[in-house]
Amino acid sequence: MSNSDARTIAGFGYEWSRFTQRELEAAERRELFERYFANFPWASLPENGGVGADIGCGSGRWAMLVAPRVARLHLIDASAEALEVARLNLAGIENADFHLASVDSLPFPDESLDFAFSLGVLHHLPDTAAAIRAIAAKLKRGAPFLIYLYYAFDNRPLWYRATWQLSNLLRLGIARLPGPLRYGLSQLFAGVVYFPLARLGRLLDRYHRLPANWPLSYYRDASFYVMRTDALDRFGTRLERRFTRAEIAAMLESAGFENVSFSDSPPYWCAVAIKRESPAQA
Predict the structure, then answer these.
(1) How far apart are the C-alpha atoms of 160 and 213, rounded to whole Å?
(2) 115-167: per-residue pLDDT in tens?
(3) Contact 26, 225 (CB under 8 A)
(4) What is the pTM for the complete model shown?
């Protein structure tokens, strides 16, 4: 069976068609990019940047900043609608290739990639661990892999986790509604929940009064466009899994990676791992 969920894929096609990311300001895109790639070992890549893959590229918003730094970048997504958005966003970038494929049918020979990254994708698959193993098989030994998986709030207090559980009940219902209803409700939440909490967090931060676990503080300096995008991503996605830092490290190590390094700043959890040089160690 394919390691994918057709309704989740369709949902992301709808999301990226709604939020193509062309309205995202270049400076904010760069800032978000640097958060995800904070620990990525660019200096370890081949002199020309090498050949890599964006697994689950979506709109191509991160590939737009990676492609100019490498020799060739492959963008892979299981949604034809998302891939078309990515093509438009990377129009004119000649070293980008596009592939309609799922993670269990990656169109590369084994041990052929110099690097790979998958940001906010693999937690939407039925078997995240199997997806990591599939990606590992395509990487050369010693190649880095950057992954971002939703965290299980393992660094948050009990009340924070309980609040999320309540919001998750809403997601489970909203994600099963028709596209226009999913969109409308997500935008309502962006306006009446995300924006007020985020902007109040910014005000508290300005006066050095921001509590450590202020809800949605990650968005305190974000544009409303980012909030709207992420609200649809959060409440419009049918299949979502969350992992602790320890679980992510264990999946990476089991797939043949070592030297797992986590970013200590949000978004959580972002990790870089290196494919083991020796197959005997895997």
Answers:
(1) 8
(2) 999 999 999 999 999 999 999 999 999 999 999 999 999 999 999 999 999 99
(3) no
(4) 0.95
Determine contact, residues 275/139, Cβ cutoff 8 Å: yes
* Tokens describing residue 42: 């660019």
The amino acid that residue 224 corresponds to is F
* Helices within 175-260 (DSSP H only): 179-189, 195-206, 224-235, 245-254
Report DSSP letters for 33-54, one per residue. Answer: HHHHTTT--GGGS-TT--EEEE
Across-strand partners of 75? 54, 98
Q: Which amino acid is at 146?
A: L
- Pick the closest to residue 177 from 121, 232, 224, 242 (CA basis): 232
CA distance 136 to 113: 10
- pLDDT confidence band for 282 (50 / 70 / 90): very low
Which of 174, 58, 166, 199 has the alpha carbon at shortest distance from 117? 58
